[in-house]
Amino acid sequence: MSDPKGKLERKAKKLIKSEYVIWLTTVDANHIPQPRPVWFIWDKDAFLIFSQPKAHKVQHIQNNGSVSLHFNTDKTGDQDVIVYIGTAVLDDKTPPAKKSPCLFEKVSQGNQGNRHDTRDIQQGIFGCDPRQADFPARLVIHQMTESILVGDRVKIYLDSKFGEKEGWYGGTVFRIDPYSAHRSFFWVELDAEAQALLGMKQISVLNPKNIQKVTAT
After folding, report:
1. How far apart are CA 26 and CA 169, in angstroms?
2. Which H or E run contains 121?
3. At what angle are helices 118-126 and 101-111 packed, to 10 degrees?
4. For a disulfide at 214, which of 42, 88, 133, 153, Cβ 3.0-4.6 Å?
5. What is the DSSP letter of 79?
């Protein structure tokens, strides 16, 4: 019996360990998504990203902490689509980049055997070598929830467009259709009680704020 949920979770953990760069998308003052590749470290339960203090992404996060992160996919873009939706905060307690042995190790490994000039790669992502600079802005990006996968129990929010039926309802994800690099349609089979109240069996959710994974206790 296939286990798509377990396969995707294993793939996500493998990418966190093996990838050197991840795409960070912030939202600017005009509510326009602004993606860029960044070096990252997995720090306990969050993505740790160093930045220059006056970088645009820092300004964006000061105004709006909602972000997304995603890895590159396969050549056709329809396999192993892994997107994290979360909240970024500026952390003044984490040691600076030049005092991070994990970053030193990761940058060094990422440059081994690369055909391009090391400085070109680093300048293209950071503007300078991240190991040689003291960047006081550290972006700690926590996931809002664990990645939502097929088979997960979730609760979804129906807004005021549903009138008196506005509120949270339970269900199970049975299909996920990628919509863009940063969002997916989550198809949810509603619980029996929700089906009776709403008069529908299934519903799709695109806004990540309107779906939350239910963790077993």
Report:
1. 29
2. helix 118-126
3. 130
4. 153
5. S
32-66 pLDDT, tens digit per residue, is 899 999 888 887 777 888 887 788 988 898 888 88
> Looking at the DSSP assignment, which residues form a beta bridge with residue 188?
173, 203
Contact status, residue 54 vs residue 43, Cβ threshold 8 Å: no
* Stated pTM of the model: 0.55
pLDDT at 95 over 70: no
Helix (H) or strand (E) holding 125: helix 118-126
Spatial contact of 57 and 51, defined as CB atoms under 8 Å apart: yes
Q: How far apart are CA 43 and CA 38, in angstroms?
A: 15
Q: What is the pLDDT of residues 155-164, one digit of tens each?
A: 999 988 889 9
The CB density around residue 130, as the number of other CB atoms within 10 Å, is: 24
